Amino acid sequence: MDAAARPDPSPACDPRDHAPTDGPVRSLPPAFAALDLGTNNCRMLVGAPAGDGFRVLDSFSRIVRLGEGLHDTGRLSPVAMDRAITALQGCVQRLTRRPVRGVRAIATEACRQAVNGPEFIARARAETGLAIDIISTREEAELALESCAPLLRDGGRRALLFDIGGGSTEIAWVRLCSSGCAEDAPELIGYISLPVGVVTLAERFRATAQTEAGFDSMVEDVAARLHGFDAVHRIGQEIRQGGVRLVGTSGTVTTLAGIALALPRYSRPAVDGVVLSDREARDALADLQALGREGLAAHPCIGPERAEFVLPGCAIFAAIHRLWPASQIVVADRGLREGMLLRMMRADQKVRSAGRARR
Predict the structure, then answer these.
(1) Which terminus in the chain has less CB density within 10 A, N or C?
(2) How confident is the model at residue 20 (pLDDT cuts 50, 70, 90)?
(3) Are 15-136 and 138-336 the same fold in CATH?
(4) pLDDT at 181
(5) φ, ψ (nearest 5 deg) of residue 20
(6) How far apart are CA 146 and CA 74, in angstroms?
(7) What are the φ/ψ torsions at residue 165 (nearest 5 degrees)?
(8) What architecture is the 138-336 domain classified under in CATH?
(9) Is 227 exposed, middle or buried (0-12, 13-18, 19+ CB in 10 A)?
(10) What pLDDT score was predicted for residue 248?
(11) Residues above pLDDT 70, as percent of the chain
(12) Do residues 44 and 59 lie in contact, with contact meaning Cβ atoms separated by under 8 Å?
C-alpha cells in the first residue's frame, strides 16, 4: 500500500473529516504535522482540526528500510541511515510550503534497538532540524489506541488492538465504556510489545518465509511470545464470553482487507473501518499464501517493494488470531501519525481555551 516517493493516500482519522483544501491560506485553521520514522517506512501527515477529528492537508510516505540488516548487526547501516535522512529532508521541504503550529516527529523500534540509534537521531536533527523522539513501546501502543478510538464507539466490553510494524508488534488490551461515556473513555489496561515485525521476521527466516514450512515456523515463534500475556489478562476466556472487538492497524491487516474485498487497487476509504468475518480473513490469508513471491510483487495492492514482508506480517496475524479467535476483525487504516495529530490538536485547543478564559 505504501509506495516509494509517492504521497500517502491514507489520511484522516475519521472519513467524515475529508474536505477540499483549496482556497487562500488565511482561511485555513492551524495546521499540525506528525512524522513517524519506522523500521521500514518514513511517513508524515499534515492536518487541520475539523469537527471531532481533522482533515488532511498533506501526506508523505517513503519506504526507507531503516532497519535493514539490524537483526544481524545490531546497528543501523550507513546506507539505510542515508535513505532515511533523504526522506526526512523531503518531509522538511514539504513543511516549508505551509506554516504549521506544531510538529511532532518520532522514531520507533529500529532506533530503540540499534546501538547507534541515538547517534543517528542526533545526525538527523543536525541535518534536518527535526527534533525526533525515540518513543517507548507503551507510547506507541497508546498512540495506536488514540487513533483507533473512533472505531471502538459501537459497544462491547473490551477490545484487543494489534499493530504489526516493521520491527515490533504492539498489542493493547483495552477496556471500553458503556454508552454515554466520554470520547476518550477507551482505557489501556494492558499491553505487550513483541520484538518481531515484518522486517525482523523476513530477515530471520529469509527465503523460507515464503514457504509453507517457514510460514508455520513464524506462526509458532510469534504465538509462543503471546501466551504469557494471555495468561495474565485471560483474553481468550474473555473472547469466549463475548463482547470483545479485535482491531488491527497495519499494512498487513489492510492488505488482508484489500484482498478480501477484491479491490483492483488499494483504497483507504474502502478499507478503513471495514469489518471482516473470521472466514473472510482466513480466506484472504490463504489467497496471499497461494500467490507466491512473484504474485505478491505483481498484485496492485502490494507491489515489489512490500512483497517479501507480506507473509511475515500474515504469520504474525495468524498467530494473534489463532490464540484469540474473534469472530470479526475491525480493520483500521490509521496509526501513530493520526494519534499524534489528535493529541497535538487537543493540547492546542486547551491552551487556546485557557487563554480566552483569562481575557
Answers:
(1) C
(2) very low
(3) yes
(4) 57
(5) -60, 145
(6) 31
(7) -100, -165
(8) 2-Layer Sandwich (3.30)
(9) exposed
(10) 97
(11) 90
(12) yes
The DSSP secondary-structure symbol of 71 reads H
Residues 6+ apart with CB under 8 A from 104: 32, 33, 34, 35, 133, 340, 343, 344
Cα–Cα distance, 284 to 278 (Å, whole number): 10
Q: How far apart are CA 323 and CA 118, in angstroms?
A: 36
Distance CA 145, CA 339 (A): 8
Report how far residue 124's alpha carbon sits from residue 111's, in angstroms, rounded to the nearest whole number. 12
Phi–psi pair at 133, nearest 5 degrees: -95, 135
Could you read off the pLDDT of 99-120 as tens digits, one per residue? 899 999 999 999 999 999 999 9
Q: Domain ranges in the chain?
A: 15-136, 138-336
Q: Which residues of 117-153 are buried (b: 16+ CB within 10 A; e: fewer)?
A: beebbeebeeebebebebbebebbbbbbbbbbbbbbe
pLDDT in tens, 279-311: 999 999 999 999 999 999 999 999 999 999 999
Alpha carbons 321 and 327: distance in angstroms, whole number = 10
Question: Distance (Å, rounded) from C-alpha 109 to C-alpha 121?
Answer: 13
As a whole number of angstroms, the distance between CA 253 and CA 255 comes to 5
Cell of 56: 488532511
pLDDT band at 159 (very low <50, low <70, confident <90, very high): very high
CB 144, CB 163: distance < 8 Å: yes
Q: Which amino acid is located at 146 in the chain?
A: E
Is the confidence at residue 170, as pLDDT, over 60?
A: yes
Residue 104 C-beta-side C-alpha neighbours within 13 Å = 18
Q: Are 84 and 37 in contact (CB under 8 A)?
A: yes
Minimal CA–CA distance to 140: which of 185, 194, 84, 80? 194
Amino acid at 303: G
d(CA 304, CA 298): 7
In three-state secondary structure terms, 190 is strand
Return d(Cα 125, Cα 224) in angstroms, integer.
39
Strand 328-332, strand 244-249: pairing: parallel
Spell out the residues 6+ positions from residue 65 whose beta carbon is closer than 8 angstroms to its own: 40, 80, 83, 199
Q: For residue 167, which of 80, 283, 288 has the smallest C-alpha distance?
A: 80
